[in-house]
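Hey, resending since the last one bounced:
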Amino acid sequence: MLRSTVRAAFGSFKSHRRTWLRTDTTSHFPAEPSVAGRTLLPTLDHVQRCFSSSKSTKANVSKAKKADGKKFKSKGGDPGSAGAEDGEFGSAGGDDLDAARARRLAEDEMNPSLDVGPNGRPLFTSIATLSELSPKDACSYFKFNEATLRGVLPEGLPSGMVEEFKESMRPALLVRKSFLALRDNFRRIVDPPMWPSDSKGSKIRKQIVLDGPVKCGKSIALAMLVHWARDEGWLVLYAPKGRDWTHGGYFYKNPHTGFWDTPLQAENVLKDFVKFNESRLRELPCQISDPIPLGEGTGVGFMKGADTMLIPEGSTLFDLMQMGIQTTHAAVGVVVRLRKELSLVKDIPVLIAIDQYNNWFTFSEYEEPVTPRSCRPIHARELTMVNAFRSMMHDDMMVGAFSHSTAVGKLRKDLPDVPLDARLSLPRYSLEEAESVCHYYLRLLPWPDRICWT
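The structure tokens again:
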């Protein structure tokens, strides 16, 4: 990943030379290579050799230390632990080379003079929340507290975010203009500006489908949007793995609806929704009092002597969630009812955020027997839960992100049940963003492989 990042951005540096990082005598960087007093710009091969040298050195150290089996662990724990603190994000490798890098990065955190990015501006923003970020913070890095981050996103972090933290040994992400535009789009919906919007400005959209090239940051942008919305007090249903709605578990055909129920997935969705939103759900009353239809339970068939479950008078949305969690026969029906209830909530903003949204427009993992020797693949739209949540033809705020890591083939531009103007293509790194990324990752190079450019 580091090599591909430098390769993608290096061409821009040949025509745009910048002052890079350390100039003080205490710097970890070696002196710039020069000829007759002129500083030279290193070649791409030199940069790649730095990474190759880093990897080979790492391998040699690992072999030398294999006998005693020493493992490095950062102060806050391993990268997956909820107790890691800012500046102490260790790598998963755990060898001595990573330990040295982590210690050096921790030392850098204590020296504000080393916080230097492109054009001498700070590499890290001093802003403490995603809500306070402004366009002037674009192309800088925002530091997260990992324990807080996992608390706000208990459903799970995107794999790209976890990988970024692991390789950079720090829980920080680049503030991109595309994320700021996405955040401000929904901010203007809930809190319109006092002045009339510029007719030349971007159109405000309540429904958005995030699309774009592979690894352009769609899942990370969606997770950061959910983080921001929850910080603002919104009620957010976040599904970081939409593919799980169409794969695995039990599936049954509901004779009353003609759709296929997946009770195990329904129970997981309800549990995830309650994790962060419990306090809000306890305050919101159920606005639909109709009984919940019952289906087949997880591996136990239909409930004997009952087709529906009554909702007690005065029940809250939290009580509704518990009905589906505690009674497997009601799980799918509760998820469908939840979708309807979310459309009726007016006291607080509601956002539905679905990652891997493209998996809802192709065939699921399930098959229906047609003859003793053949089966018919079941499309995602035939699943009860997907059918309830997939459509964007409504007035609710909803964001779906395509995931190329779970690619299902190229989808047509005019997706069913999605507005024609809903697609928003996220770009790859711009020149300014690539500069910040290279500054950020070159700090991880082992001395003396670090490079100082002018």
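The CA atoms of residues 160 and 220 lie 7 Å apart.

Sorry for the duplicate.
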